[in-house]
Amino acid sequence: MATPRPPRIALPRRVEASTGGATHQASPKPAWLLRTLRRWFDTSAVVEVDEAREDRIDWLRAVPFVAMHLACLGVAWVGVSPIALLVAAALYALRMFALTGFYHRYFSHRSFQTSRTVQFVFATIGASCVQRGPLWWAAHHRQHHRHADTANDPHSPGVHGFLWSHVGWFLTPRNFRTDLSRVPDLAGYPELRWLDRYDIAVPVLLALALYGLGVLLQDIAPQLGTSGGQMLVWGFFVSTIVLFHATVTINSLAHRLGRRRFETKDDSRNNLWLALLTFGEGWHNNHHFFPGSSRQGFRWWEVDLTWYGLKLMAALGLVRGLKPVPAWVLARARY
Questions:
Q1: Which of 58, 66, 116, 197 could in theory staple to 4 by disulfide, Cβ–Cβ 3.0 to 4.6 A?
Q2: Ramachandran angles phi, psi of 114, nearest 5°
Q3: Distance between CA atoms of 310 and 91, rounded to whole angstroms?
Q4: Which residues contact 10 (CB under 8 A, 6 or more apart)?
Q5: Contacts of 156 (CB under 8 A, 6+ apart)
Q6: Number of independent structural domains in the chain
Q7: Residue numbers of the domain that contains 185
Q8: Is the residue at 8 inside a domain?
Q9: Helix 82-97 to helix 201-220 angle, to the nearest 10 degrees?
């Protein structure tokens, strides 16, 4: 199976413009407001921001994020059913694997190879998590590893505090942008750039599909006790918000709680409970010591569900070249 190579095409001007750091004179307020609202749907829309506000939360841009949390309160009106919980749990598991296996271990660290088709399929599933596009995710994660637990790390709990590392940092103008210079190996794929630019498209389609599924099941299998609204609230909003907060515990808690097997320049730690919650990402000290491995649970007893899933995909011929943990790495372990 051939490893996909990014096509040699020039990046569009609008993509390049969205990554610049220049500060421009403020636009008239109505135009600024329209461009800010446009960024809910098109992340390439540029809004000039004073340097002093680059690291402050953009509350207007954050409205959809806040609204998704409030939508979870809809469980009080739509009720609950076993089928709604099953769908919510299944979508949590599938999307967590897409985030950990592909957004993280593949796009961010290139720890294995796959075809362009599989790359796009899992990029699309990852985009449904409402954690932005694969280029944005990989670019910021590479920045995190380059400057872990320093002032240049956007989500270090030791530097910026728990709440900022958990939910604040990515709501700022500086961190809304995708720096394509950090992901030149990915930026040549137009389909990945499209997912990054219109990062709301896939989540909206998923939400509509879940609502339609609920309506269909209410009509053909009323004994299941579900509805369009119930499937939307549980399958999309609750599942997505739980998925988000589970994912970002690696930013906020895995640099605070747990044990340090390896001496690293950052404060990363191994935590079994976080590893179970995030399909293996909680073995964070392992990962920071040797981020190039496809496996983050370095010992057999360290549960790493994403690693097991990738091994299964390799057996099926969907991925290849899973990078192992070298013997010299294990020899450096303190326990």
A1: 116
A2: -155, 175
A3: 18
A4: none
A5: 148, 149, 150, 165, 255, 267
A6: 1
A7: 25-331
A8: no
A9: 150
Q: Has residue 1 been placed in a domain?
A: no
**Are the CB atoms for 84 and 232 separated by under 8 Å?**
no
CA within 13 Å, CB half, 188: 9
**Side chain identity, residue 60:** L
**185, 255, 279, 280, 290 from 275: Cα distances, Å:** 29, 13, 6, 4, 17
Asked, for residue 16, whether it belongs to a domain, the answer is no
Three-state DSSP string of the chain: CCCCCCCCCCCCHHHHHCCCCCCCCCCCHHHHHHHHHHCCCCCCCCCCCCHHHCCCCCCCCCHHHHHHHHHHHHHHHHCCCHHHHHHHHHHHHHHHHHHHHHHHHHHHCCCCEECHHHHHHHHHHHHCCCCCCHHHHHHHHHHHHHCCCCCCCCCCHHHHCHHHHHHHHHHCHHHHCCCHHHCCCCCCCHHHHHHHHCCCHHHHHHHHHHHHHHHHHHHHCHHHCCCHHHHHHHHHHHHHHHHHHHHHHHHHCCCCCCECCCCCCCCCCECHHHHHHCCCCCEHHHHHHCCCCCCCCCCCCCCCHHHHHHHHHHHCCCEECCCCCCHHHHHCCCC
pLDDT in tens, the chain (335 residues): 555 666 554 444 433 334 444 444 444 566 666 766 777 788 876 666 677 778 888 888 899 999 999 999 999 999 999 999 999 999 999 999 999 999 999 999 999 999 999 999 999 999 999 999 999 999 999 999 999 999 899 889 999 899 999 999 989 888 888 999 999 999 999 999 999 999 999 999 999 999 999 999 999 999 999 999 999 999 999 999 999 999 999 999 999 999 999 999 999 999 999 999 999 999 999 999 999 999 999 999 999 999 999 999 999 999 999 999 999 999 998 87
Does any domain span residue 4? no
Check if the beta carbon of residue 256 is closer than 8 Å to that of residue 241. no
- Give dist(CA 283, CA 287) in Å, integer: 6
